[in-house]
Write a structure and sequence with these properties.
Layout: H1 2-5, H2 7-28, H3 38-52, H4 67-88, H5 92-111, H6 120-131, H7 136-157, H8 169-183, H9 187-200, H10 202-218, H11 223-235
Length: 241
Amino acid sequence: MASILSMAAAGARFEQYAHPVMARFAESGIATGGQVTPPQLVDAIRQLFVLLQKDSGSWAPSLPDDEPERIGDICLGLLMDLATWADRLGEREARASFETVTVSIAVWLVQHHQPIHTLEPVVNGLAILANAEREPATLQALASIMEGIVEAASGDYATDLENADPQRPWRVLLFNWGITATRAHDPESMRKAFSTLKKYLPADATVFFQEGRQQVLQGDYPAEVRQTMLEAADSTGHGLH
C-alpha cells in the first residue's frame, strides 16, 4: 500500500506507463480532430503531479479554499481520459496502471478532507488492486482506503438508487468494500461496510449477504468472520437456511 499512499510513487508509476502510450499514439496515425491527445494529457498530468507532491500548505495563499478539491478532480478526469486512450491503443496494462494511479489521487483528496466527484476510474483501480492481493494485512489497509473513499464520495453518490446499471461505480464500490473487508478477515471493517451497504443499497444488500453466507459456510474463514457475515445475512430477514 505504500505506493498508493505516496504521491511520488504514484507519479513514477504514471511516468512508467505514459511513455509507451505516447509512443503507440505516435505510431498509430490516428486522426484526432478536436480531441485532446495523449501527449497533451500527459503534459497536463505531469504539471498537476508537481503540485500534488508539494505540501498544500505551501501553495499560494491567494488560491481559493476549494483548490485542492478542484485540482484533485481535474487530475482524476485527465487520468480517466488517458486510460481510455490507452485502451484504444491496445495498451491494456497502461490503462490498468493509470486507474490504480487514480486511487492515489483519491487517497490524497481524502487526506485533505476533500470530496471525490469522479468515481469510476477510482473504483476500477481499487478492484485491480484488491483482485491482485491475497495478504489479509494488505487487504485490511485497502479496505480502510475504501472506507475513506466511500465517505468522500458519498456527497455525490449516496442518493444513487438507480438499479438499471449493476456496474455503476457507487454500487461496485460498496460491494467491493464488503468483499475486501471479508477477505481481510476484519470483522470491524466488515460491520462498517455491511452497515453502509444496508443503508444506501438495501435491496442489493439482501442478495450480497445471501451470497456471502454461502461463501463463508463453504470457505475457510475464521469463526468471527463467519459469524459476522451470518449475523448480517440474518439481519436482512432473507438469510439462506
